[in-house]
Amino acid sequence: MVFFGYMLSSVIFGLLADRYGRWKILFLSFIWGSYFSLLTSFSPSYIWFVFLRTMVGCGVSGHAQGLIIKTEFLPTKYRGYMLPLSQVFWLAGSLLIIGLASVVIPTLGWRWLIRIASLPGIVLLLAFKFIPESARYNVSSGNDKAALATLQWIAKMNRSVMPEGKLVEPVNEKRGRFKDLMDRKYLRTTLQIWIIWLGISFAYYGVILASAELLEKNLVCATGGGGAEEAEIGNAAEEIRSPCLCHLFAPSDYQVMIISTIGEIALNPVNILGINFLGRRLSLTITMGCTALFFLLLNICTSSAGLIGFLFMLRALVSANFNTIYIYTAEVYPTSMRALGLGTSGSLCRIGAMVAPFIAQVLMNASFLGALCLFASVCVVCAVSAFTLPIETKGRALQQSK
């Protein structure tokens, strides 16, 4: 339901950001997400919990405007280096919440975990005073004075001076229109990007969910019918003990989560080099192809350490895929529809995320090889789509209008 909320509001926030500004939507989404996240901890019933988490998903979808602001401020030669470094902060937040969960849930419970996790979002609202609106957006909307003031502030911070001259750019009244995404110039790019986003999300959440299945049930090395029978008996016994089939994570579960999460940053240096020297398209093609290969390698019966190694590499690769497609999508569209382009892509992305559990947790138990082949096939389709993208954004200046 979090993904469903994200899917619904991602397009809306993208459209509004192109029409009314990135800063406003980013600020609104932070307030929205923080408020409903905190409210979730007071859920009186499961229905209320599901509804409030859906609202959290709606708020989180607007956070992509932060990437848009960074993209529109960074010079061309630095974007490929600075944008992937955002993954470091994502990793830090992921590790922090896993660490908090290991301490707070066994002692205070999940409600307090949500309350504590909501605090950074509330505190960060104070930082918005120091975040300017995108100068590119202000110029495209005709607000040259605000854009000039922002650039002068930046020049002052850098102890530099503004170059002589004045901002000259025609006002673009047609911003945030769906038909522009389907324009002949961008139609092929848009359709292929949507395929890639859907496939990357499908693979990313497939890896996360499949990790638990593989480590808990040992699906790889199970032989004959005994494994299935034993699993069935075990499940029946578990159902007798706990009808909801719920159990608290052991310390080892948190350790596996931390190890696999660290994997998300493992290939970041290589990913940065690939993005900047090979280009966005070829780099994404290679990492998607390797993702397909490692999905198939999971079918090899190996030790627990070997399995964790495969999962570690898969987590690193799917994270690199996300890194590259985020950058490419933010760069390929002009300012007049950049937020909408990223918003619609994010919406398609959540469809892949919602489908992943049915493959990683349902089909995988019925046909382990079939599930792996499906994940690998989707990754191959994404690799082909990435390789044939009509526009390469490496070294390309951001386009201001269509």
UniProtKB/TrEMBL annotation:
Keyword Metal-binding on entry: no
InterPro entries: MFS, MFS_dom, MFS_sugar_transport-like, MFS_trans_sf
Family of the protein in this entry: Belongs to the major facilitator superfamily.
The keyword Transmembrane is assigned to this record: yes
Superkingdom of the organism of origin: Eukaryota
GO molecular function, one term: transmembrane transporter activity
Membrane-traversing stretches: 88-105, 112-131, 191-210, 366-389
Membrane topology designation: Multi-pass membrane protein
An example Gene Ontology CC term for this record: membrane
Protein name per the record: Transporter SVOPL
Primary location recorded for the protein, binned into one broad class: membrane
Keywords: Membrane, Transmembrane, Transmembrane helix, Transport
Pfam families named in the record: MFS_1, Sugar_tr
Source species of the chain: Eublepharis macularius
Gene: SVOPL
Compartment list: Membrane
Domain Major facilitator superfamily (MFS) profile: 1-394
